[in-house]
């Protein structure tokens, strides 16, 4: 199957401009699955520690509108996260949009940072501590949204659920890019799954100094198969899911708890 990860600028105007480039890329490559960054369709709200419910609602509405545009990619499956209000709770919802089954909420972000630039715990609430695999027409998929990547026990749990794709939509900065790639490699090895990530791309004048570097990492040895960059913001590779099945039979995946 063909997987596309990406990086693009964060902001409504930038997103509109770069969306068409992503659409063209995905169509030309015939991608089966596209992973977008974390909450991609509205300026990053957790930059400030002053939570504003009006801003949250605006972000919810913009993301809702963009859901109808995901079909423009013409990919069977699109994966990302978005802000939602569910039963009165403000949550970061990981979702899969599938051509056959439509929209499915899969996971609500549980581990929330709260520091300069990433005041997420001030803006929204934890979801349930629920890390389960969703079966799509293409693969078994599990989520570790951004900070969740550092809680490796869940990558191990996913291995026990025979995961094939571990998706990590991110919103991470430039100074920590190398560290995040190390985390992605470790998660791929522990889960025995292809680890995929997309992030926001740096732009002149950005306060957040985004790190870019979407990745595709293989499951057996954690080798990085490809990275995005400012010059090459979209990456599409063909992968063989049988590698994930084989990986789980080898060290360290087969070792019992």
Give the name of the CATH architecture.
4-Layer Sandwich
Measured between the Cα atoms of the first and last residue, the distance is 32 Å
For this structure, the CATH topology is: Nitrilase/N-carbamoyl-D-aminoacid amidohydrolase
Overall form: globular
Question: What's the name of the CATH homologous superfamily?
Answer: Carbon-nitrogen hydrolase
Count of folded domains: 1
**pLDDT averaged over residues:** 96
Largest sheet: 12 strands, mixed
Content of β-strand: 25-35%
Structural class by SSE content: alpha/beta
Unreliable sequence segments: none
Number of β-strand runs: 12
Kindly provide the radius of gyration, computed on alpha-carbon positions and rounded to a whole number of angstroms.
Answer: 17 Å
Order of helices and strands: EHEHEEEHEEHEHEEEEH
Which class in CATH terms?
Answer: Alpha Beta
Percent range for helical residues?
Answer: 25-40%
Describe the structure.
There is one protein chain. It contains 6 helices and 12 strands. By secondary structure, the chain is of the alpha/beta class. It has a single domain, classed as Carbon-nitrogen hydrolase (Nitrilase/N-carbamoyl-D-aminoacid amidohydrolase), CATH 3.60.110.10. Strands 1, 2, 3, 4, 5, 6, 7, 8, 9, 10, 11 and 12 form a 12-stranded mixed beta sheet that branches. The radius of gyration is 17 Å and the shape is globular. The mean pLDDT is 96.
């Amino acid at each position: 199957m063909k997987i596309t990860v990406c990086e693009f600028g964060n902001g409504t105007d930038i997103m509109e401009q770069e969306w068409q480039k992503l659409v063209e890329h995905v169509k030309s490559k015939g991608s089966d699955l596209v992973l977008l960054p974390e909450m991609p369709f509205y300026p990053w709200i957790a930059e400030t520690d002053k939570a504003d419910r009006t801003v949250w609602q605006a972000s919810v509405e913009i993301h809702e509108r963009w859901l109808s545009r995901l079909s423009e990619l013409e990919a069977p499956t699109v994966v990302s996260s978005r802000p939602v209000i569910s039963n009165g709770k403000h949550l970061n919802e990981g979702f899969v949009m599938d051509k056959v089954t439509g929209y499915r909420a899969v996971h609500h972000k549980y581990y929330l940072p709260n520091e300069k630039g990433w005041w997420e715990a001030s803006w929204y609430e934890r979801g349930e501590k629920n890390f389960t695999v969703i079966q799509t027409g293409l693969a078994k998929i599990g989520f570790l949204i951004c900070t969740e990547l550092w809680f490796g026990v869940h990558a191990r749990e996913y291995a026990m659920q025979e995961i094939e794709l571990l998706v990590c939509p991110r919103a991470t900065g430039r100074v920590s890019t190398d560290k995040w790639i190390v985390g992605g490699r470790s998660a791929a090895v522990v889960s025995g799954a292809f680890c995929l990530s997309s992030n926001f791309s740096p732009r002149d004048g950005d306060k957040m100094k985004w790190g870019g570097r979407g990745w595709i990492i293989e499951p057996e040895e954690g080798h990085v198969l490809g990275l995005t960059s400012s010059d090459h913001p979209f990456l599409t590779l063909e992968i063989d899911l049988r590698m994930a099945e084989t990986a789980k039979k080898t060290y360290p995946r087969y070792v019992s708890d």
